[in-house]
Amino acid sequence: MVGGSHLAETDLVPGKEYEMTTMPAGPLVREHRLIEELVADVEARLSSPSPRRPIDPAYVDVVVDFFATFADRCHHGKEEDILFHDLATKTMEPAHKKLMSELIQEHEWARNTVRRLRAANVSVAVGNTESMRDVQHLLRDLVAFYPGHIRKEEREFFRDAMAYLSDEEKDAMIRRFTELDATLIHEKYRLVVQGIGATT
Question: Total structural domains in the chain?
Answer without folding.
Answer: 1
